[in-house]
Amino acid sequence: AAAAGGAGAAAALWSEVNRCGQNGDFARALKSVNKILQISKDDVTALQCKVVCLIQNGNFKEALGVINTHTKVLTSDIIAFEKAYCEYRLNRIENALKTIQSASQQTDKLKELYGQVLYRLERYDDCLAAYRDLIRNSQDEYEEERKTNLSAVVAAQSTWEKVMPEDLGLREATYELCYNSACALIGQGKLNEAMKKLQKAEELCRQSLSEDSDVTEEDIEAELAIIHGQMAYIMQLQGRTEDALQLYNQIIKLKPTDVGLLAVIANNIITINKDQNVFDSKKKVKLTNAEGVEHKLSKKQLQAIEFNKALLAMYTNQADQCRKLSASLQSQSPEHLLPVLIQAAQLCREKQHAKAVGLLQDFADQHPANAAEIKLTMAQLKIAQGSVTKACMILRSIEELRHKPGMVSALVTMYSHEEDIDSAIEVFTQAIQWYQQFQPKSPVHLSLIREAANFKLKHGRKKEAISDLEELWKQNPKDVHTLAQLISAYSLVDPEKAKVLSKHLPSSDTMSLKVDVDALENSHGATYVRKKAGKLTGDNQQKEQGQGDVKKKKKKKKRKLPKNYDPKVTPDPERWLPMRERSYYRGRKKGKKKDQVGKGTQGSTTAGSSELDASRTASSPPTSPRPGSAAAVSATSNVIPPRHQKPAGAPATKKKQQQKKKKGAKGGW
């Protein structure tokens, strides 16, 4: 009777579990399942139901604990999908992959999860194959989601692996498909096309969400945040940093729940700020440290964020923090250039240039594949220190670059600056030999020979230049320009040889150029300027045509001669010199008192001035001195000195000025 009662209670509980499961009330269903397990603790079905209820309630860790506790009952064949899904949601991606691969039977559910796991592991080729197989062998209501995932894989390949995406023939009927297509175009560098796709995605998103009456405008803006973020990124790539920054800040104000999106936007703002607006960058960097960011972004995105953190620490003079971050990055990616470049930059900021060069040299020795870029940086540091010759030696040690035209030009310029012409010519010679051996018909080869010849001529190496020009002429005997250069060079060394070579020049008849003179004169770039006075009207042109072409003689102006000119007298040869500089000048006659008036410093007088001063006579009363007579002021007098004394009419003048000002003033004080 007791057993029958227990069986009846279990049946009632199972019916309760079934009813709650259909209604989606998994919390209540879990309570009933626990009661069943109290009756029968190893009931496989009850354990499975408990795991499902926990998963539905988001308790992935507890669900995985139940599976691992009952491994004897819940074998991998029974519970493989649930276990792998819990591991996937707990970001134990490698464990989830092992669980899926160990399952004896690969169900459609496991294949779907397998594709998600491969995407998270960034194994895009395998992921693409998995989704193609799923789309080919399944027909249900989830086909659109599988196509969306497939397009996301293609976009990731284009963005992170720079793989040219193939046309999958997917109809872009949803905004998710449009968005993924835009991401793929960004990876290819087709920014304008990508922007159009994003605009279409925004339109489709608004249409689809507006059909639901429960969705508010805020919900739509939150859903559009990721599309707007990608639009801002395109603006940033196009150099429209102000527009990009404005859109980034608008998204941040919406406070989206996607921590990955916020981290990417914050990082992009930091890259726009660079070494400016550092306070804002320090605030934004906090968004990149949010919990769960590492599970939302790809490895390259996370790496870029860490690089920018190290650079920000350098810009904010946090030397220890910068060294710590760059060292951590170097340990994670030993072959990556940026960590060692950041360390070298930090050392340079600390004026330790020699140590920075040593650090770069060690990295170049350890990683020869990346030596070229490192050596370019080393050369730049040497130039900054003023060691141009050492910089040239470093540049010439880069085997894969030293024959390039840009490198040759840089080296020749630097050696010329140091007045080391022999080394500059040696650079030309080595580059020409390389092209002669590997690319003899390359236009760069001929261009280098010509440049070398011009350089040698400029620096007086005529014979060497002639040798280069002869080599050029042999390769193309019809090149008149080279022949002309060769003749010009020989004319400096061997004029007879120049005459012989000049016979090879084409005759003037064969060199007649078909030039439309009128068109050339009327062109916008013509330097010919017609004088307005020389323009003739139609009537004058007709008159002149009748009279014939008669050149007008310019009338010579008669030279004006001096009034006292005597043709019999020889002109003074020193007439163009100033009087004081002529040989017969004897100076002015002395003794005239009038010549001394006004001479000397201000206030001084001549010896006889007191005799001429009427105020000094006995009959005249004492008066204040005149503005020019300092001698009238005694040592004990308290009269204002003449040069500071106000003129007699000064007060009246001042009053007049004040009256004028009052009369013309319109405003108050």
TrEMBL record:
<feature type="domain" description="Signal recognition particle SRP72 subunit RNA-binding">
    <location>
        <begin position="531"/>
        <end position="587"/>
    </location>
</feature>
<feature type="region of interest" description="Disordered">
    <location>
        <begin position="530"/>
        <end position="669"/>
    </location>
</feature>
<keyword id="KW-0802">TPR repeat</keyword>
<keyword id="KW-0733">Signal recognition particle</keyword>
<keyword id="KW-0007">Acetylation</keyword>
<dbReference type="GO" id="GO:0043022">
    <property type="term" value="F:ribosome binding"/>
</dbReference>
<keyword id="KW-1017">Isopeptide bond</keyword>
<keyword id="KW-0256">Endoplasmic reticulum</keyword>
<feature type="compositionally biased region" description="Basic and acidic residues">
    <location>
        <begin position="563"/>
        <end position="584"/>
    </location>
</feature>
<dbReference type="InterPro" id="IPR026270">
    <property type="entry name" value="SRP72"/>
</dbReference>
<dbReference type="GO" id="GO:0005786">
    <property type="term" value="C:signal recognition particle, endoplasmic reticulum targeting"/>
</dbReference>
<keyword id="KW-0677">Repeat</keyword>
<keyword id="KW-0832">Ubl conjugation</keyword>
<dbReference type="Pfam" id="PF13181">
    <property type="entry name" value="TPR_8"/>
</dbReference>
<feature type="compositionally biased region" description="Basic residues">
    <location>
        <begin position="551"/>
        <end position="562"/>
    </location>
</feature>
<dbReference type="Pfam" id="PF08492">
    <property type="entry name" value="SRP72"/>
</dbReference>
<dbReference type="GO" id="GO:0005829">
    <property type="term" value="C:cytosol"/>
</dbReference>
<keyword id="KW-0963">Cytoplasm</keyword>
<keyword id="KW-0597">Phosphoprotein</keyword>
<protein>
    <recommendedName>
        <fullName>Signal recognition particle subunit SRP72</fullName>
    </recommendedName>
</protein>
<dbReference type="InterPro" id="IPR019734">
    <property type="entry name" value="TPR_rpt"/>
</dbReference>
<feature type="compositionally biased region" description="Low complexity">
    <location>
        <begin position="615"/>
        <end position="632"/>
    </location>
</feature>
<dbReference type="Pfam" id="PF17004">
    <property type="entry name" value="SRP_TPR_like"/>
</dbReference>
<comment type="similarity">
    <text>Belongs to the SRP72 family.</text>
</comment>
<dbReference type="InterPro" id="IPR011990">
    <property type="entry name" value="TPR-like_helical_dom_sf"/>
</dbReference>
<dbReference type="GO" id="GO:0008312">
    <property type="term" value="F:7S RNA binding"/>
</dbReference>
<keyword id="KW-0175">Coiled coil</keyword>
<feature type="repeat" description="TPR">
    <location>
        <begin position="225"/>
        <end position="258"/>
    </location>
</feature>
<dbReference type="GO" id="GO:0006614">
    <property type="term" value="P:SRP-dependent cotranslational protein targeting to membrane"/>
</dbReference>
<dbReference type="InterPro" id="IPR013699">
    <property type="entry name" value="Signal_recog_part_SRP72_RNA-bd"/>
</dbReference>
<feature type="coiled-coil region">
    <location>
        <begin position="93"/>
        <end position="148"/>
    </location>
</feature>
<keyword id="KW-0687">Ribonucleoprotein</keyword>
<feature type="compositionally biased region" description="Basic residues">
    <location>
        <begin position="653"/>
        <end position="669"/>
    </location>
</feature>
<dbReference type="GO" id="GO:0005783">
    <property type="term" value="C:endoplasmic reticulum"/>
</dbReference>
<dbReference type="InterPro" id="IPR031545">
    <property type="entry name" value="SRP72_TPR-like"/>
</dbReference>
<comment type="function">
    <text>Component of the signal recognition particle (SRP) complex, a ribonucleoprotein complex that mediates the cotranslational targeting of secretory and membrane proteins to the endoplasmic reticulum (ER). The SRP complex interacts with the signal sequence in nascent secretory and membrane proteins and directs them to the membrane of the ER. The SRP complex targets the ribosome-nascent chain complex to the SRP receptor (SR), which is anchored in the ER, where SR compaction and GTPase rearrangement drive cotranslational protein translocation into the ER.</text>
</comment>
